[in-house]
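The instructor's notes for this session suggest beginning with a concrete chain rather than abstract definitions. Hand out the sequence below and ask the class to guess, before any prediction is shown, which regions might be ordered.
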Amino acid sequence: MARKKRPSINLGKPAPPQQKEEMAHLFASEQGVEQASGLQLFAIRLNAIQPDPEQPRNTFPPESLAELSDSIRQDGVIQPIEVMQMGPGLYQIVHGERRWRA
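After discussion, reveal the predicted structure:
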């Protein structure tokens, strides 16, 4: 049985209007998607984010960060940084410390 091909999605850049229309049937509503996943996508000031002190990775080679930074500038952030709220206006990184440092 052949698998149905799913539309490709690039989170780094907005989807063209035609692609948005093609995928509209996948989502009942934006609010429904957020409620189903329990996650929200929003912008946070960089100085409100702190690294996880329990992060197992403790070395971040400058060359690697520079390369990632260039990639983000060129292509955008493909996978958002995941954080959890630690207090009013204060967040801790759950996933994506390299992207945050870059």
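Then share the key points. Residues 41-101 form a domain with the Conserved hypothetical protein from pyrococcus furiosus pfu- 392566-001, ParB domain fold (CATH 3.90.1530). The beta strands are 49-50, 82-87, 90-95.
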